[in-house]
Amino acid sequence: MKIVPCAVLATGFAVSTVASAEVSVLENNKTLTHDCAKDRVVDLIGNHIKLTLLGTCARVSITGNHETVIGAATIVYVAGNNNNLTLEASEKITLAGNKNTLTWKQGAAKQPPKIANVGKHNTVTQAK
To answer: Using an 8 Å Cβ cutoff, are 90 and 112 in contact?
Structure first.
């Protein structure tokens, strides 16, 4: 797992590394662009993070609040609240948190993504 400390975010992903290709963002109030070809799993734990994904990540997990995510991920899990996701493509999306906004464009293999909306007051729409 990679942990992205606050001072490093401004200059790139010079981070501590363990065997898996995973990035965890613990800090608050960050704007990031992430290359999914380098690290396939992203965990947003801090709050008020703006993340743009390049390519398609295997998994994006959001436990923080007030996150903005733009891009594509095969699996998306949102436990936090008041998050805004704009997904180009995804296969499986779980909204367990509350007051999240999800816009998705397409699913895998011309099928819509499987969406589990178990939180409260979430908004889910397909982009036109």
So the answer is: no
